Amino acid sequence: MRTADFRTPEIGLDSTAHEARLKRLWETSPGIKGFFTTVDHKEIGKRYIVTAFAFLALGGIEALVMRLQLAGPDLTLLTPEQYNELFSMHGVSMIFLYASPILSGFSNYLWPLLLGSRDMAFPRLNALSYWIYLASGLFLYAGFFTGNGPNDGWFNYVPYALRDFNPGMNQDFYALGIVLLGISTTVGAANFIVTVFRTRAPGMSLNRLPIMVWGTLTASVANLLVIPSVSLAFFLLWLDRQFATQFFDPNAGGQPLLWQHLFWIFGHPWVYAIVLPAMGMVSDGLPVFCRRPLVGYSLVALSTVATMLLGFGVWVHHMFATGLPSLGLSFFSGASIAIVVPSAVAVFAWLATIWLGRPVITTAFLFFSSMILLFVIGGVSGFMTASVPVDWQLTDTYFVVAHIHYVLIGINVFPVLGATYFWFPKMTGRMLDERLGRWNFWLTFIGFNLAFLPMHLTGLFGMPRRVYTYAPDMGWDTLNLITTIGSFVLGLGILLFIVNVMKSLRTGERAGANPWGASTLEWATSSPPPPFNFAVIPTVASRHPLWEDQLGEESAKSSIDRGMLLASGKETIGTSPLDAAPDMILEMPEDSITPFLLALGTTILFVGMLLKTWGVVAAGGALATLALIAWLWPRQALREREPAHG
Amino acid sequence: MNAFPLGYLDAAGRRAATVLPLTWAVIVISVLVSLVIAIVLWRAVTRGRLNGGAVETRSVPITRTGNGIRWIGIGLVISAVPLLVTLVWTMITLAHASGPPQDSALTLDVTPRQWWWEVRYPGNSPDEAFATANEIHIPTGVPVLVRLHGGDVIHSFWVPKLTGKTDAIPGQTNLSWMQADAPGRYRGQCTEFCGFQHARMGFEVVAQPRDEFDRWRAQQLKGASPAQSEGAQRGLQLVEYRCGLCHQVRGTSAGARSAPDLTHLMSRRTIAAGTLLNNSGNLAGWIQDPQGVKPGSLMPNQYLSARELNDVLAYLETLQ
Amino acid sequence: MAEAVADRELVVADTGSLPVGPVGRHGLGSWGVAMLIAGEGALFAFLLFSYYYTGANAPPGWLLEPEPTLTLALPNTILLIASSFAAWFGEHNILRQRRRGALLGFGAAFVMGVAFAIVQVFEWLSKSYRFGTSSYASLYFVTTGFHMAHVVVGIVVLAAIFAWTALDYFSPRRRLSVSAGVLYWHFVDVVWLFVFTTFYVTPYLGFGQ
């Protein structure tokens, strides 16, 4: 049977029969089969979110144990070796296994809904990125739980990471685990880029994209380009350790600073990649609770891109003490001061949105608005370290620890918590409890500031980082005790968050399609959305389709109820990159086991490399290759090949 | 601020003092900015507030009023001022603080190792050279050049009251410098994570008037005095046989260089890289059980008998 | 909900006839392989950065081959360029619906790719140094090694394209797999030009001496 090569999509209204047909086409098989084969972005997004929160909890427990050890001077709760593995694993868990995946999870879940589409551009690639993320997290924690966790910080400088000084398997777990994770993040980034440029609802031109989409897009382009740098660094480290190559060992012409350059060329853009999408979530969520559109949309979108671009040019500010010539240091110092400007745009836009709006205080609003202050505090401490001579005193002290926690918790965790309160109803059909939410917020806010505000002083008074203990006559005792107490209050706040989520999943108040009266397309579907997202592909005429009536500003009105039906198969619409004009009907893949198998094969390959057992490497490689060939085999349903000739 | 030996909000030397005004300026700017934003945020949130949940949120209609872009414009213009000031001031301070100065009166070779500081005074000729560990003496009022050599892994040299941090990286020589305005003891600390005992890798810089410094240097140049008492002589034998596997005591056959030079051990105020005060109780405890004081340290526990320990201490106490 | 304001027009995308699935080179797969090329290109950029950084900071004598021999490498480079031409030829024939010509092109590209790999292995074995000898040696082997890995993948891709062409899967309209695979092969070729220039040409221009 030859199906049509061209078709004019039927335009119409939704109907029960139409929805039933779409449901049959799009829903995942139930049970175990569906669990391993689903390519539904909503399923994958939820898995990412749950897994990332689990790593947040693990990383948090690691921190609390460290804070017990540091509550007073000369304590002996932990040995130096245990402490070093804890602080390293804390960094790895938070920065690699929580901060980026949580944003990938929200983006994965929300993007097709925000964009008016039925799935991401590459659904199977989406599934692959989750399975590999899970595998890498398990791989890294297998090291940690067997006493072979990373032990040289998350930044892992050489020569300490080389075999001579680090003979155990700790570094091998870390190096290979991160290379494995890098595959997940890279394919995820590619998926986001293609999705935003090719699968938006008609009419959603670039200047109508939600800021969260700008944030994740920017982060994805950056990740695609810089993750190879860190993957290469870790791979070269593994080679130096296991095959006696000479990349980093100065005794044979290697360069220890090469590690730092490769690491920070990745590392600095990475820290923007883990906050820009979260800032986008604030830019999209905060206006809903201010009952007005975001102030300065275009400036905020542009500043997102500008921040990331500048972010490629500041990495040496992590290396100011390494003896580089002053001329080079001056350039990076200047760039690091300049980057404050685009960041400031978002802050003023948010403040203006609140001031000129009519704020309604809900838990989500509290998280979204308080983060503005935490952002600024983190931002100014960063500004302080941007000045080279000042940094020569501040760097490697607890001042930097205060800075990074204000920017990471303030610009990632607080927005994520707010985003959960905001989008939980959409994902689950239930509201999170507001009263419990207030307790959650205040304990988290007070605990966080109690723990980390004094830490600026601890750093100014000279306490170095990455120390398992400290002497009693340094003037740091009381400050450390306060920080420890604050950290436990913060932990209690996060615990309440988890309690709220667990409780509300079962007994939360039921939510309709748009409980907050919000403006973007995801609120036009049911809560939770049907497997196909939109029964009818919307046409978009503004940034806030669901507010057009109230605002009365636009000359045209978005069409939500009437549009392309696209029910001849598992289909969505492909649109042009800039203006989102429809240009192709996309046939989407069915559920498939190949992503899981490819992830499994790749993981087996990495385990083989870890154990230096080449048979296992070959087996993993073979499985991965076969799975990939099966995946890429041209399929007629996807129109990748012609039908067989009779 | 002697309450904070590693604090740097006060300076005791020219290089650190150059940076201090800029440091205070950025602190003040940062605190002011944070306060202003906090106040604006508080006012914005509490202006016309409604408190509640989904129902309350939905109940407020959507409107767009006011000139929000002006906020962004004004905010950026106001922000630009401290940013520009800081940028220019940074460049000027960097030029002054970079160094090294042309007129350094003394050059030191410092090689940090896991987890102690090897300090060599090269002098003008080989017979003016000597090594010590963990305690650096300098004359006051003159710039001192510090050449930092990589020993094993990356460490960082920091004396907060005198100079900012400079890393010691294997394969290259980095330069730092310091100048103490007044006599005193200034605490230093390794500030690049270097393994198990990074936390206990401190040192002291002792600034002395020129004549005192010259006397100290002359004393350091001498080899160890011969052991007098019987106990000290027995101790010397143990030191040469056991400690000499890693340590050097000039004037004896203990000549290894992978651990601190002990020739003038008792002239130092602290032991174990600034971890313990140098008295006989601590010294005994350190020798017998270094793993108890600094777990993971490269000095193994010695398991000396009580008499052996006494003898060793008797000898070491002659190393003034 | 208030009535829609009378003079605001409801906008519904009126698309006309649209292609179903990828047509020629236009499809999501092209974007996908472009993303792959961007990422892998970045990887090679960082590999070459490592070489230039290490070389710039190295003492004299770092170059183990101050005048690298081109006897194997230059013909091999020409061979790889020719294989790109063969791959292009193969796709060109798909466009002309000439299956035999396409098989000839892909088959020739495959054979040339395998030949390149074999010659490369000979070159590695002929070096007087091993990958652990020095930082120069390590960088040489890991960079050409990564390239070799990409060649191997490319050879598998060419084999798959050959097989799928033999199975008569493709037409001028439905050929995205071919375009994507051939583009990847061209990428492997271009990367080699950068790698070749870095290791075999820049020493003659004075770098690393």
The CATH class of chain C:
Mainly Alpha
CATH architecture name of the largest domain in chain B: Sandwich
CATH architecture call of chain C: Up-down Bundle
Q: Helicity of chain B, in percent?
A: 25-40%
Number of self-contained structural domains of chain C: 1
Number of strands of chain C: 2
The radius of gyration computed from the alpha-carbon positions of chain B, rounded to a whole number of angstroms, is: 27 Å
CATH class of the largest domain in chain B: Mainly Beta
The general outline of chain B is: elongated
Q: Give the low-pLDDT segments of chain C.
A: 1-6
Residue-averaged pLDDT of chain C: 93
**What topology, given as strand order, has the largest sheet of chain B?**
4-3-2-6-9
Major interchain interface with per-chain residue totals: A-B, 101 and 98 residues
Largest sheet of chain C: none
Structural class of chain B: alpha+beta
Number of domains of chain B: 3
**Residue fraction in strands of chain C:** under 5%
Describe this structure in words.
- The complex is a heterotrimer of chains A (about 650), B (about 325) and C (about 210).
- Chain A has 20 helices and eight strands.
- By secondary structure, chain A is mainly alpha-helical.
- The N and C termini of chain A lie close together (about 10 Å).
- Chain B has eight helices and 13 strands.
- In chain B, a hairpin with a 3-residue loop joins strand 7 (about 155-160) and strand 8.
- Chain C is mainly α and about 210 residues long.
- Chain C has one domain (about 25-60, about 70-205): Up-down Bundle (Four Helix Bundle (Hemerythrin (Met), subunit A)), CATH 1.20.120.80.
- In chain C, helix 1 runs antiparallel to helix 4, helix 1 (about 30-55) packs parallel to helix 5 (about 175-200) and helix 3 (about 100-125) packs antiparallel against helix 4.
- The model of chain C is unreliable at about 1-5 (pLDDT under 50).
- Strand 3 (about 360) of chain A pairs parallel with strand 1 of chain B.
